[in-house]
Amino acid sequence: MGMDEDTGPVVGAPGRSLWEEEPARQRRMPDPVRQSAVRAVLIVALTLTEATITFFLMLTGSWLAFPMALGAIAGTVVATWGVLDVLITRQMWNQRYGVVSEPSSTARDRRRERRRVRRETRPEPSGRTGRIPRGGEGRASRPAAWPAATADRRYRASTGRG
Question: Taking the complete model, does pTM exceed 0.70, yes or no?
Answer without folding.
Answer: no
